[in-house]
Structure formats: C-alpha cells, structure tokens
Design a protein that fits this description.
Length: about 500
C-alpha cells in the first residue's frame, strides 16, 4: 500500500480561491484546451493537452493544468503567479524540484481534477498522481493502495442517485470522495467509510478543496465501521471486480466471486431508515445452470423493494482482459501477463462462471408485505441524471401494488409528454406490422404495443377512465367490450410500470 504522505487541508480555502481565480474549472479547461484535447484527456492521452498548454503560454491556468493534471514540473516563478506557492509547499500540495529537473521548479504531489457539480458548482477531486481519469497516467497503476479520481463508474452512480433532502447519508468505500461530495448538497450529516485509510485522507482533501462541509470519516470494511447506525441514503461504488485475490484495494473486494456485492446488498437493508434508499454499482456472476435474475433476487434483503438494471455483460475472456489492462498488466512481461490471465480463468472455471454482468442496484426500505422486485436488462442509452426517474419508478410500483385490475379500469391516465409513436412496417403496406412507443427522456424505453394499446395510449389525456376508453375502442373495432376489459389491464400495468402512462390523481387525493 502506498505510504506517501498526503497534503494537509490547512490552506485549502486559499488554494481553492487561487484555482477559481485562474479559471481552473471544468469550463475553464474546455476553453483552454479545446474540445479535441479535452476529450483526449478522458482517454488518458495527454499530448494534445500538453500542446495546448504550451501554446497557452505561462498563464496561471496553463500552469495549474500542467502541474495538477499533466504532472509536469513548472518553474517556481510561474507557480507563484498562479497560487499561494509557499502555503502549497508547506501543506504538501507541491514539492520542490531536484537537480534532475531543475531546483527552481515545483511538482504536484497529488492529482487535482476540476469537476462540475450538478448545479454548476466548481468542485475538485483529489487523487493519487496519474489516477484522475484524464490525468497524466490515466488508470493503470498497479500499486496496491492507490486512490483513483473520477471515472465513468463514479459519475454513473452520482447520476442515478436519488437527491431528495435527507438527514443522513453514508458513502461506503468512498475512495477519493466524489459520492460523499455530492451527498453534502442534500444531506445534513454525511459519513464516508473506506478500508483504505489513505482514501479517507483524499476524501478530506476533496471536500476541503471543493468548499464543501466536512464529513464523518471512518476506517473499515463495508458496514463494520458504522455499527448499528441507520441512514436515509446509502451509496457505494464498491471494489466490485471479480478477481482471484485482492491485489488492488481500489477494485478487488477480497471476497470470493461476487460475494462482496452480495454482502453489501444483503446487509444494507438493516442499515436503512424506513423509506430510505441504498444505491450501488456492482458485478455479478452468470453461472452455468443458474438464471442470473434468480441470483440477484436472492440478494434483496427483507423489507426492501428493489430495482436492478443490468447494463452490460462480458464473457470471461473480455472481462479478464479489461481488468488486466486496467492495472497495466499488459505492459509487463508477457509470461507474467499470461500467468495472471490463467489464474483468472482458473478462478472462473472453478466457479462455473460463463460471463459477468454489470449494472445498478437500488433498494428502498418499504417494509411492504409484498415487496416490488424488478430485475431487468437495459443496455441502451439513458439520459443522466436519473435520480428523478428512480423516484418515479418506485412511486409507480406503489401505485400498481395498491390498484387491482378493477381499480385500474376506473383510473384515469395521461400519456407522458415526451413519448412518441413509431409505426414499423414494409414501405407501402396498408397497415404497420407493429407500433412502438418510445420515450425521449430518462431511461429512453421503447415498447411494442398492439392496435388497442396504441389507440388507448393515444387518447389518454386524463379526461376519461381507462374502462370508458376501452369501451369506445371496442365499439370502433366491433369487439366485445367485456372481453377487451378483461385482457387489457395487463398491458396498462406494463405501460404504467415502464413510465409511458401517468395516473391522474382524483380530486381530494
């Protein structure tokens, strides 16, 4: 594990003020570097950014980019023009150069990545050198205790998290603190835990440099550090990689197979206050002879509703290659790379794992007699942030749980505003082969409907009950209205569950 000492946050406010004054923000980076170089940074390609900062001269913004994102030495005099350099040296954000690179230079000791908050906040994520996505080295460190910065998984979890005001929030496995930082916007009290004490140090720096309130920081694995405490919101981007052993703290959970994710989910229920949410990213095994839906259903704790979305599936060779490259193992001795590859395949073979799924898991503590558990595969593009869509999903589950078929037929609905209808068929055909309803927001779902379903959805404006609409459709199609009423509620349920139709509240409700 890395033993390099971390900066202190003593002068973080002063340093933050200098960074903002220099324009060292997400928007400022885009303006300075230009879109191509900015996008290249996200791929860990630094040459375009180096050219852009070289052409940008010795201004404060270019100096800060070269120091904290590109990890290049800069002349002391340039650093002094961009920031309170002596305070940064004293606190450990910078170190002086040596004879090899010039004693009149300074170097960054940590990676600092400007990060735009959801409401335009100018935040900074602090991590180990080269470990911000878009930093000089990108992800690829094989040091055991390295702490990463912002990645795609981090921003995905931040985007799907429910953001209603709460009294307490817990970030399990906080890393560099991005989830805890988001939680400070809407939680009165934020607790962050990590098995790696170094990660908690980075979380403290991230919060301080972002101008956010302090959080309670506790060392330990999973829920062990918080004892029996309960929370309104729990989030975690855990070390979910299914690997042979626990070589890298930031990604390998140290439990067999997908046991870490299973344990996290199963133990979360008892740590949630009534009505509280727990939201995780995770990997799970697809095992020979087992339905992956059943595997995940067995994880859901008692008293909780669940919405689990599988976003991707990789066969075991793809999965192994992804994570070997993540650690930079493909750049080592070929024989060592092959040995690690074999170890991973041996592990999967022993567990009869044929592929690995990745996705989102959301729990809500409802204590319902009949919990709602929805497990689905949705690999298509979605529109982030999805926190409001998560809330709407569980509200719809409550509605459907409380309304039987007879109540649905008495209810009134409106077609969600952004839904469009597509007719699919051969050119010139008199009638379409089928009709598709498609959402342009949120989950961006699409679903096939028959003629009745399309006609029903098209006239749902809240003025008529579902039953009266079906009676009118039956008359037009010369069908038995009783038969149509009997067979349609299932389709109505699906359209409500997937967010195509919204119930209209009756007066007084």
């Amino acid at each position: 594990m890395s033993t390099t000492s971390l900066p202190t946050p003593d002068h973080a406010a002063e340093l933050r003020g200098a960074m903002l004054a220099a324009g060292f923000t997400a928007d400022g980076l885009l303006d300075l570097l230009g879109a191509p170089a900015y996008a290249a940074l996200a791929r860990s390609e630094t040459v375009p950014a180096l050219r852009a900062t070289r052409d940008g001269g010795d201004g404060p913004l270019a100096t800060l980019v070269r120091l904290f994102l590109l990890q290049r030495p800069v002349p002391y005099v340039h650093a002094a023009a961009a920031m309170p350099v002596e305070a940064a040296l004293a606190d450990g954000w910078l170190r002086r150069g040596d004879a090899a690179d010039g004693e009149d230079t300074v170097h960054a000791t940590v990676d600092v990545r400007p990060y735009g908050g959801p409401d335009g906040e100018d935040w900074f994520i602090v991590s180990d050198l080269g470990c911000a996505v878009g930093g000089a080295g990108g992800i690829g460190s094989r040091e055991e205790g390295v702490v990463l910065g912002v990645g795609g998984a981090s921003t995905t979890l931040a985007g799907i998290t429910v953001r209603t005001p709460v009294g307490s929030a817990l970030d399990v496995g906080t890393g560099s603190g991005i989830q805890a930082l988001h939680a400070t916007r809407h939680a009165t009290r934020v607790t962050a835990t990590d098995v790696n004490p170094r990660a908690l140090g980075f979380t403290r720096l991230t919060l301080a440099l972002s101008g956010a309130p302090e959080a309670e920081l506790l060392t330990g694995s999973l829920f062990e550090p918080v004892g029996e405490a309960t929370y309104d919101l729990i989030v975690s981007n855990p070390p979910f990689v299914i690997s042979p052993g626990a070589r890298l703290t930031y990604r390998d959970g140290g439990m067999g197979g997908d046991d870490l994710c299973r344990t996290l989910v199963q133990e979360a229920g008892a740590r949630l206050n009534p009505g509280g949410y727990a939201q995780f990213l995770g990997n799970w095994q697809h095992v020979e002879g087992e339905d992956w839906h059943d595997r995940l259903r067995s994880w859901v704790p008692r008293g909780c509703d669940a919405w689990i979305v599988q976003r991707d599936v990789q066969d075991i060779t793809q999965y192994v290659e992804l994570w070997l490259r993540d650690a930079g193992d493909h750049r080592t001795d070929p024989a060592e790379y092959a040995r690690r590859y074999e170890d991973w395949l041996d592990e999967f073979e022993a567990r009869k794992t044929k592929s690995v799924g990745f996705g989102w898991i959301t729990l809500r503590r409802s204590d319902a007699a009949e919990p709602s558990i929805v497990i689905e595969e949705w690999p298509h593009t979605v529109e982030q942030p999805l926190g409001e869509a998560v809330l709407a999903h569980f509200a719809r589950q409550d509605y459907l749980r409380e309304h039987d078929d007879a109540a649905l037929l008495e209810a009134r609905f409106t077609l969600v505003e952004e839904v469009v209808q597509e007719q699919v068929g051969s050119p010139g055909a008199e009638d379409p082969e089928h009709v598709v309803l498609r959402q342009n927001r949120g989950m961006r779902r699409a679903t096939k409907v028959d003629t009745v379903g399309a006609g029903f959805a098209g006239v749902c404006d809240g003025s008529l009950s579902a039953g009266r609409i079906l009676d009118a459709i039956a008359q037009l199609m010369q069908e038995d209205p009783v038969v149509l009423r009997d067979r349609t509620p299932e389709a109505i349920r699906l359209l409500v569950e997937q967010g195509f139709l919204e119930p209209v509240a009756r007066p007084g409700q």
